[in-house]
Each structure stands twice: as C-alpha cells, then as structure tokens.
Design brief:
alpha+beta; Rossmann fold; 8-stranded mixed β-sheet; 5-stranded antiparallel β-sheet; 48 strands
C-alpha cells in the first residue's frame, strides 16, 4: 500500500494514462439512453432537427435538457416529476480549429510531460570541486551513447559505451541499464530483465571494462539471473545477490567470495522479502556500504514462520492447461512477521557478525528494522515495534561491533512513519563542524522537521526547521563547502512543494533561535530537484500547475544555465485542444456527529463550456490513505479531465481527515492526520459524504447523479463511503478498483501501523472492514474491478466481499476480473480495458441507464 506521495500507486492516485493508444474511433451518446432507445423517432418528430444524436469523439454534442423532457411528458399526459434531472450546457463546436479533449488524445500522450533524469557522478573531489559531471544516455546519429558530460565544460566528455546491443558468443543482448563505477573505469550492464514485484527484478548482469578496451563479460554465467548488484564506494568490489545469498567480486583480482550460504525461499540475505520491499525500504536491495568501502551491512530476513499466500496465474505462456502457481511469503495483519537481523561484514578479515540489537521494549518477533545508514565509522539503525508507536535508535561501532541504544521515542495516539532520510555530515573543522554528525527527520508537534545531531551518540538534536508544515524526504543535498542544507517542504502551501535551504550554523537567527530558511523557488508551483554531488548545480523540475519544465541552475551564481526540457509539444497541443478548467479550493466540512467544523483542500475539474446555470453530474475521485495527498498543484490532464470533457461532469477531489499536509486547522494541528489511528474507515467516508452534501446544494449540480470512485485505498474508501452513506444516500453510483475490503487480509507492516493487530483492536478491524452489505441497497449501481494476479491487495478481498453480497442478496453491482494483472492492472491490455470500463460505466450511470 502507498506510503508517501512519491510512492502512491500511479494509476490510483495520479491517474496517469500510459496504456497503448486506442486505434478505433469511438461514437458516443450523451443522452438519456433508455429514453432514446424507446422514443428516438418520436422525439425527433416533436423537436425537429435541433439536436444531433451522435458526434465525432473530438466534439461534444448538445444534450437533452430537463425542460425538453418535461415538455414531452406533459404533451403525452405525464406530469411525472420523479424522473432525474438532465440539464446540460451544450459544448460549442463553432470553432473548428479546436478539438475537445478526449480519451484518445490523452492516451496518445499529447499531454504527458517528459522529464529527464541525470545520474550525477560522484568522484572523490566532487564534493569540494564540483564540475557538475553526470552520466547521459543520448541518441546521436541514430545510435545510443552513454556519455559522461560536465555542465561547466562543454568539451568534457568521456564515452562509456556506444550502442544499445552487444554480442556475446554469437548472441545479441539488449542493454536495459548501465551503472558506472564511481571511478568511471568500469560499468555494470543489465540485460534480459524480468519483473518480480513492485521494485525488484531478475536479470543478467555484465561487467564492462571501460578503460581496458571495452570488453564485456558476464558477472556469473548466462544461465543464472541475479537479483541486484551494488558498487563499493572505492570501485574495487561489486556485491551481488544470487538465490538470496550475498556474493562479493573483487574487481582487481577477479576473485569471488560467497558471503552467505543459508539463502533460500525462507531466508533472504541482502534482498528484501515481499513485505520489506513493499512497505519498508521501497527498493530491491538491503545492503549498505561503509563510506570507504571496507565493510558493509545487510539485512537478513528469516521468513520461516511467515505464512505463504498462493497466487494462480491463468494466462501465462507455457501454462496453457494448468495455471502457474506462485507462492509469496506474505504476513497478513496479526500473523508472524519475518525475523530480521542486521549483519556487518568486514572485507579484509572476511568475517561477519549478526548484531543482536537487544531491547527491553521490542522483542525480535515484534521488531521492524526500518532504516540503516553509515555515519562515518558507525552504523545508525532504527527499529520500531509492529504498532509503529515505539521507535528505538541504535548506534553500532563497526570496529568492535558493539552497539548502544541512543534514543527511544514514543507516539501517543499517532504513529512513526517509515523514513530513510538520515544524512551523514562529516567532521570539517574549517567550517565549524568539530565532530561527525547527522541530520535526521524528527517529529516536532506532530510535523516532520529536520534536526542536527552531533556527535552521532548525542540523543538531543538541534532543530533546523519548525512549524505547522512538513519537510518531505529529509535532506535533499548538502554543500560541504558552505554547510548549506537543501530540502523540500510545504512551508508556503500545503498543496505546493518548494525547495529551501538552511545553514547548520547561520549567524542570523529568527525569534525562536532557528536558522533562517531561504527559498530557492518562487511563485505558485510544485517543484523538485536533483543536486550535483557537490551541491553546486541543480536540475530543477517544475511539475505544475502550468506546463512542466526542467532547467539547470548554478546555485553559486543563482544563474540559470540552460533549459533541459520545455515540453513544447504539450504547449503546441494545448493550442489545438480545449481542456477542462481546474480550480483549487479550501472548503469547510462539518462532522455529522460532533458538529466540529474544519477546513480541507479540494480541487474541482469543470466540464467544457461550464455554465453555473446548468446542472451537471458530479464524480468524486478519492484516495484518502493515512498521510497521503491527492490535491496537488501539478499539471495533470488525466482521467478526471477526460471524465469532465467526455461525460460533461464535474470531478471533485477532497483530501479529508487522515490525509497529510493540511495546514488549515490550527486547532486540530497534526490530529487532522492522526485522528484515524486505530479506526481506519470511520472519519474518511464521513468527510466525503459531507463534501458531497455541500456540492449537492450547488446550483450547477444534479444531486441525483453523484458518483465516487477510487483505486487501492481509494477503492476501499469508495466502498466504505457507499456503506456509510445508507442514511443520506447522497452517492448514487460508485467504482472501486483493487480495493481492500477487510484489513485482516492486508499486509502486517502497513495495516498494523494504523490499526495495530486484530487481536489488540478487533473493534477497529470491524469498523474498517466492509461488513454491512445491506447498506449497499440504496446505491443505484456500482462497479468493482480487480486483477487476479494482484500480489499487493489480493483478489481475495473482492471475492470475499462478493460472497458477502451473495449471502446478503445484494445484486446492484457489476464486477470484472482482469486475468493475471497485478495491482496496476496492466497485463494483456488490462490498463486500457479497465479505464474503458470505468468511463463506460459512468457514462451509463450519468445517462440514467441504472434508474
């Protein structure tokens, strides 16, 4: 499940459309479908030829209005007022040089921004003499070239490899990735990559000798795929994982040492199991090198007691008659977690030692290891309990392998998020840094902020930032020549992101004795950045709300060097298309039970040619997971825009209680997010219902046609909202994709962070589950879709709910399975089909088919 804004499921939260372009033209009826089928000819005779029934998809057609329907009914002796209202503002197509936004244009990528990434090169001299060197993959004269370039020296160029294919023993191999060694003398090539889980892959890995004539040899033989590889900082060694064992290859002598021998389907060394990959480290490797490359630590996970979950795959090549069956070590809430230990290995002595990290408060079977980082010659290790309300921080001396508990933190009525943001600050007496230290993300007043700890065993950090706003992702970069710390935060606005800097020892203090914060970005926007190794140069990315761009900036001179990406193709395409207007708002909601009022962020996407004198259907798009954010000022002509344009509907997104980054409620403070502790599903649906009630009263909203949809946690929130809405019946329709329906079915690390275990909090699990199926009787129609190969939110969730519906005699829903698709539903054209189904369902709903 999604942990932070950078790791939300891309289909569910950001609604990115990346499937193949549709090759067929689509014809659409935007009318009262049953009425048209039964009486089209009669209506045409009465009304003449003033309305067209169909239109090419690039244009909007006039709609049947409520007044016309009532006129026809009265003419036929029927004064019924019980029919739903259907009043639309016809889209003006008089400007033939413009096209209305449509799904095909979005799928064709006409509005999909391009973003370039730079692999900055870190050489020994980089942090003090930053030349802005980076690895660039470029197409030159039709050939792929991997080049080392410099920002300040146009003539500086080192060619690592030319081409995208190489031949070995008569077989051609296509390069999927190139990772150069820190000293640029060698590189690792990856080919024949196969996807595993969200972050992990298996592939063939090759050693390219750049300085030695360009020879390419396999790391192992070509019959075995490795899980991952990792360069040592000194470029002398290469670590890799094979069959859950750690190996070390000496690049100079070509000698290979097998570090571990107990790797198996039960024991994982240096590679995370499913739950640690998904919920803790968000990576395919759990191995960390010391700064000088003479040691490393790695995570050892023993999954012997973790139950297996079986997933059958029905349509895989080579498994035509019997399904391919995959077993995953998947700990559900309340079941045994993997037993994790940290191992430290010394390359010189070829010895390893398991660090016990004993604690009076957290037993090994109740322990999560959530962060590991080298702080000079020591290793800082963060551990927490399963409920994530107790955090312990150890410091390990890598010479003696002794360790000490240096900090213990507790969270009352809240939780500690898993972060990997600790940043090592080395000793530099010339700049006033007399001892090694580190910058960590700490919780102050319920908000994530930066604090500086020096020496590393000092339990009391000095705050660098403070306030009712958040620092995201910890330290983004550090200038070792000026002590300037760069970070991203919500200081200016909770729906924006800006880049700031603060100095460790700024002589100018504010009233709270904190260093003065300086902003690197201005105006309205969502910014991120990639810093060169010495923090002199910044690849600045502007992601919205206007058309995104990227540029290189010299932070020493505050001068822009050049534009890297302008996305001119989007600017040109916007000249040809009419797209929906988007408006960001802060709205006030009222808790139905307590009467408490609070403010939330919202964004509204309007139909084309929007007119407040007409009534439109409304679609709520939701995610709503703990600490998440969906209302963001980014450029995103997405599925919400498609619905607004093609279905002539208003689309609304509201970040209610439980979500993060809301700074509008001084009295609630961090309680706005942490209110859902131990009771997921209690407040989130109430807020969506309260927001829908506000919109139902608006003059331009048809209150009989309000729908809600979401994916993953948003799928859960959609169903929970429909279940909770049985008294008000404000939502008539819903679409739920890949939902959690019972939290006891979801993984332990995510679920227990918010709900504890089912044994500790049975009432909370009951409230959070979709359990009262009779409450769905008020819904006119809803749709559920799920991938049968979903390793994240298992299809068991949906199948159990459907069984509950069968027992409860609930039939007002549609369901579609997507064979072998995972959580993103992409297998065998699944992503195109699922969005077609969602759009078609909403079109049918808004046209009155389900009345």
């Amino acid at each position: 499940m999604d942990k932070d804004e950078s790791d939300y499921h891309e289909v569910s939260l950001n609604e990115k459309i990346r499937s193949n372009p549709s090759k067929r033209s689509r014809w659409s009826l935007y009318n009262f479908k049953n009425f048209i089928i039964s009486g089209t000819l009669l209506v045409l005779l009465i009304w003449g030829t003033s309305f067209l029934l169909v239109a090419i998809e690039n244009f909007k057609i006039p709609q049947i209005t409520n007044a016309r329907i009532q006129q026809y009914l009265k003419a036929n002796g029927d004064s019924s007022s019980s029919l739903p209202k259907y009043t639309f503002k016809p889209f003006d197509v008089s400007d033939s040089n413009k096209f209305a936004l449509n799904f095909t244009a979005v799928r064709d990528g006409k509005f999909r921004p391009n973003f370039k990434s730079l692999q900055w090169i870190t050489e020994p001299s980089s942090i003090f003499d930053d030349k802005g060197t980076y690895l660039l993959q470029d197409e030159i004269d039709g050939e792929t070239k991997y080049l080392i370039r410099s920002i300040i020296d146009e003539d500086y160029q080192i060619s690592l490899f030319n081409g995208s294919v190489f031949n070995h023993h008569g077989i051609n191999y296509t390069i999927d990735n190139l990772n150069s060694s820190p000293d640029l003398t060698k590189a690792i090539l990856r080919t024949n990559t196969t996807h595993n889980w969200r972050h992990s892959t298996f592939a063939l890995y090759w050693l390219l000798d750049i300085k030695g004539g360009g020879s390419i040899v396999p790391i192992m033989d070509t019959t075995q795929k490795l899980a991952v590889t990792s360069w040592s900082p000194d470029s002398n060694h290469l670590a890799y994982i094979l069959e859950n064992n750690v190996y070390i290859k000496n690049i100079i002598s070509d000698e290979v040492t097998q570090v571990t021998t107990d790797g198996s389907i039960q024991v994982f060394n240096g590679k995370p199991d499913w739950v640690y990959e998904e919920e803790v480290f968000g990576d395919d490797i759990v191995l960390w090198w010391s700064p000088n490359g003479d040691k490393f630590t790695f995570l050892k996970s023993n999954d012997t007691e973790v139950p297996e979950f079986t997933i059958p795959y029905y349509v895989q090549e080579g498994h035509d008659d019997y399904p391919e069956v995959i077993k995953i070590k998947y700990p559900k809430a309340g079941y045994p977690n993997p037993i994790v230990d940290l191992v430290i290995y010394d390359l010189k002595s070829n010895k390893q030692e398991v660090l016990q990290l004993e604690s009076d408060n957290i037993t090994p079977d109740n322990r999560l290891i959530t962060e590991v980082v080298w702080v000079g010659g020591s290793v800082l290790v963060k551990t927490s309990n399963r409920a994530s309300d107790l955090l312990e921080i150890f410091l390990v001396d890598s010479e003696s392998n002794s360790y000490k508990l240096i900090r213990t933190l507790t969270a009352e009525k809240s939780w500690f998020e898993i972060t990997s943001n600790t940043f090592f600050v080395p000793k530099n007496e010339s700049l006033g840094i007399n001892e090694d230290g580190y910058i960590d993300t700490v919780v102050d007043g319920g908000y994530n902020h930066l604090a500086y700890f020096s020496p590393p065993n000092n339990p009391n950090g000095r705050l660098l930032t403070k306030g009712q706003w958040e620092v995201l992702g910890g330290v983004k970069s550090f200038d070792y020549t000026t002590n300037e710390v760069y970070f991203i935060s919500t200081l200016k606005s909770s729906v924006e992101r800006h880049i700031y800097s603060v100095n460790l020892f700024d002589a100018t203090k504010d009233l709270e004795n904190l260093p003065v914060i300086k902003s690197l970005t201005t105006g309205e926007g969502w910014y991120s950045g990639s810093f060169s190794s010495g923090s002199r140069y910044l690849l600045l990315t502007y992601a919205g709300p206007e058309v995104p761009y990227q540029k290189l900036t010299d932070l020493k001179s505050s001068q822009d060097i050049k534009t890297i990406e302008s996305n001119q193709q989007i600017i040109d395409n916007l000249e040809d298309y009419i797209v929906p207007k988007v408006e960001y708002k802060v709205i006030t909601l009222t808790d139905k039970d307590s009467g408490e009022e609070f403010k939330v962020n919202a964004v509204e996407t309007y139909p084309l040619n929007f007119d407040e004198n007409y009534e439109y259907p409304v679609l709520f798009f939701v995610y709503g997971g703990p600490g998440s954010q969906t209302v963001t000022k980014t450029f995103d002509i997405s599925f919400s825009a498609v619905v607004a344009a093609e279905l002539n509907a208003v689309v609304v997104t509201v970040d209610g209680r439980g979500t993060g980054f809301n700074n509008h409620n001084a009295d609630l403070g961090s309680d706005f997010k942490f209110i859902v502790r131990d009771r997921l599903g209690q407040f989130e649906p109430k807020d969506q219902i309260a927001a829908a009630k506000l919109y139902a009263k608006k003059s331009y909203v048809d209150a009989s046609r309000i729908a809600i949809w979401g994916w993953s946690y948003g799928g859960f929130l959609t169903l929970k909202t429909l279940e909770t809405d049985y008294e008000d019946s404000i939502f008539s329709y819903g679409v739920s994709i890949a939902p959690v329906t019972k939290w006891k079915f979801y993984d332990s690390i995510y679920t227990e962070r918010y709900l504890r275990t089912p044994q500790e909090n049975p009432e909370g699990y009951q409230i959070a589950s979709i359990h009262n199926v009779t409450n769905f009787q008020h819904v006119k129609k809803f749709f559920i879709g799920h991938g049968s190969g979903d390793d994240n939110v298992h299809v068991q969730n949906t199948l159990k709910l459907i069984d509950d519906f069968n027992v409860g005699d609930i039939e007002n829903f549609e369901f579609m399975i997507f064979p072998d698709s995972d959580h993103s539903i992409r297998y065998h054209n699944g992503n195109k089909i699922v969005y077609d189904r969602i759009l078609n369902f909403l079109k049918r709903a808004f046209s009155g088919e389900f009345i």
